[in-house]
Amino acid sequence: MPLDHDLQSVHEMREAVKKAKEAQLTYLRFSQQEVDEIVKKVSDAAFNQSLRLAQMAVEETGMGVVEHKKIKNEVGSKSVYESIRHEKTVGIINEDSVNKVVEIAEPYGLIAGIIPTTNPTSTAIFKTLISLKTRNAIVVSPHPSAVNCTIEALKICLQAAVEAGAPEGIIGWISKPTMMATTELMQHKDISLVLATGGGGLVRAAYSSGKPAYGVGPGNVPAYIEKTAKIDRAVKMIVDSKTFDNGTICATEQSLIIDRNVKQMAVRELRNNGAYFLSEKEKELMEKIISPTPGKLNSKIVGKDAVTIADMAGISVPSQTRLLIAEETKVGKDVPFSIEKLSPIFPLYTVNDYQEAKELCLKLLNLGGRGHTLSIHTNNEQVAKEFGLEMPVSRILINTLSSIGAVGATTNLMPSMTLGCGSFGGNITSDNITARHLINIKRMAYGVKDVDIPVSSQNSNASKNLKQSEDVERIVEQVLHKINPENPVDTDVISEMVNEVIKKYQMNEI
């Protein structure tokens, strides 16, 4: 009798976990040099297939831009490799001869990797590299809408790893993913850590799995153009970033906030860069496409280009349109333009100064995106620092493209396809996740200080009572020694001697 889809998926997952566990026990004995050679070979193989994997991802998911996904694959392979290549992840990784502390790296064991549909190949490559670098095995659950391209990326990585000497099974996957299998994978007794990138529900499931987990929250990134910014440069960056891979990176700008003093200039530059401004009637049509159900994003617009989305709403726009913009004043779940849209659609808010901009940014972040990222374009360092100090986000990007700046492409942030949101967003870390997050660090600490341990008062009293008892016994022995067994015992003498002993005892003289 054939198994149903869920049971097949669960069975496949269990087999992958079993093989990965066996492989990891073997991989555990590999040296740093052997590990580094494997990681380099995997990175090179994935990098060389960046274009083909990008083409597969766009074809299968219907999201994004091939040329842009190729860049993401290159960041997820080569840039990630370059950022971790010199890190020690095997054995003794640090010796502090002054403080006499030695640090030793130990892998977690078996990683459960959850991959999103928006960045399916780049995230798979990235999670594989940081797992292999730290002597962990990984079993991946692809998104059902991106199974083929994700598995192809994993096959490329596995083949390169095995050819470089890694054990078979060190990278595993579920080829028929279901929610049942993914949930059981995260809860499996042999899984040591969950590395989850995806929607809010999936991330909550990862944190509820009973396992240590790195999950990342959504982004609803405000982008603020302050009056001192170089407007033409700022607008070009924002448009390029917002349209990069049709807005599928979670760190992409989602709302545009502009100082009133420079609004006219900014609007002109936005038009020059391919933005189409919606009329009030067109805005109403677009709102129904963005969020047919209040507070929920229409998944059909995710990763689509501006012209396609306009056509879905029945709006005619020029063929060269890159971005759809509507003026907005409100923020809320029932305000479609203010939610995370993951597509080239912007609300444009006008503010009088940076203080008003801060208040608006906070409202947008509280709606969705706390802890993730904020973008600001300014030449006023004090304004930038105030935003950095006051905004509840883990990344504040200054004068750069937010989408790829957050993942380390245009900044010196750690290259990563999984961006922590800290406690602001209910995450365990605010870091860009990388190899160092996938190792336990044991510490050998040598004694370097002498400490005199005082005797407690309780022990002191006990010692004193013991001494007193020993003294009484000694005196009684003396009394008995004075007694001549050949002579009759003089009871009066004995009584007097005993009374003397008791008296001295009571006066603490003995």
Automatic annotation (TrEMBL):
GO MF, one annotated term: oxidoreductase activity, acting on the aldehyde or oxo group of donors, NAD or NADP as acceptor
Sequence ranges assigned to domain Aldehyde dehydrogenase in this UniProt record: 11-271
One Pfam family per UniProt: Aldedh
Keywords annotated in UniProt: Oxidoreductase
Domain of life: Bacteria
InterPro entries, per database record: Acetaldehyde_DH_acetylating (IPR013357), Ald_DH/histidinol_DH (IPR016161), Ald_DH_C (IPR016163), Ald_DH_N (IPR016162), Aldehyde_DH_dom (IPR015590)
rRNA-binding listed as a keyword: no
Annotated protein name in UniProt: Acetaldehyde dehydrogenase (Acetylating)
Lineage of source species: Bacteria, Bacillati, Bacillota, Bacilli, Bacillales
